[in-house]
Specification:
Length: 147
């Protein structure tokens, strides 16, 4: 019985020791894969010309298109990984190529007002390697119902 307990204790110690080594290896890999996490002052920064676009009044069924212009004011390339809208009626398009420091780009947004009426406030969330990683821009206006 005593040998069994000793063997079990050694086995558990070896197992736990190997788990700690794996965590350390993963942590080292993660920290080197994104320089912005390790050194935020060198991170890319996404700065929009306008965070909010008011399209005014449109008739139901019209499509509204707007391009949110931005600049990478940071010190490393900006990589946009996704752009999503708060509603399926709004479709954002984003650049897939890295934006160099001082480079510019646009997030093109198309809002389809079919089946919508009244005040609209669409939130577009842009996910990137910038700090912070998520930035929001807004498309607002009013859709006048068909008569």
């Amino acid at each position: 019985m005593r040998n069994f307990i000793l063997t079990a204790t050694i086995a558990v110690s070896v197992f736990l020791g190997s788990c700690n080594n794996n965590k350390k290896a993963v942590k080292e890999t993660d920290s080197t894969s994104n320089a912005a996490t390790e050194n935020p002052e060198n991170a890319p920064v996404i700065k929009f010309e306008k965070n909010n676009y008011d399209f005014g009044k449109v008739a139901e069924g019209e499509k509204v298109t707007y391009e949110f212009k931005f600049e990478n004011t940071g010190k490393s390339p900006l990589i946009i990984s996704n752009a999503t809208a708060s509603c399926g009626c709004t479709i954002p398009e984003f650049p897939h190529a890295p934006i160099p420091p001082d480079g510019t780009g646009v997030i093109k947004v198309i809002f389809n007002s079919s089946g919508r009426s009244g005040m609209q406030n669409k939130v577009i969330t842009v996910t990137s390697n910038a700090v912070p990683s998520a930035t929001e821009v807004y498309l607002v206006g009013e859709v006048e119902a068909k008569k």
